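Entry
Fold in token form

___
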Amino acid sequence: MKIVGEYSFNHGKEVVETEYASELREVKEIVGLINAADFKTKVGKEKTKSGRMLYSPVALNKTFTLHFFERGWAKQKIASDYSDEYYISNYKPSKVGKGAFREMDFVKNHLGVEVQFGKYAFMVYNVAAKMTIFHNLGFIDAGIEIVPVKEFAREMSTGVAYFEQFTWDLKQRGVSNIDIPVLIFGISE
């Protein structure tokens, strides 16, 4: 894989390059290793009914996870204890999401990394909510989001969101006073 796009959300590029240079090198190395080591052949691809070979987002995520864990990055998981205090008085649910959690894909030295080969809503949620939550809880101070560019997303076996739409929306949304610095990478094969 290779990085073909960069978007600096809330000075993400500047912050990550200056305060997390070592971690940034590792992230870039991992992206490059996946291209060379895992996808030169048809490994990690799925065949469609028409015989066309497409990338499997599940296989890509597993490969990223393997490489991040080998370098000492860890998942960060927190329990989400949902409250029933906001229901109106005559509503009583059978249960309120016991066992729910939030998880950051990879964390090292207060830098969070999310690899997203999923639906569009998850990309926006990662930057506009999840990274802020993990920052407020003291786990991260900045983030990196890795997403496919449109050309690469078309080669996925399931419909996934892409860098161009994501960065357009973030630019139109603007930065809020609660947003943390995030560097967004658009990757391709």
The chain has six helices and eight strands.
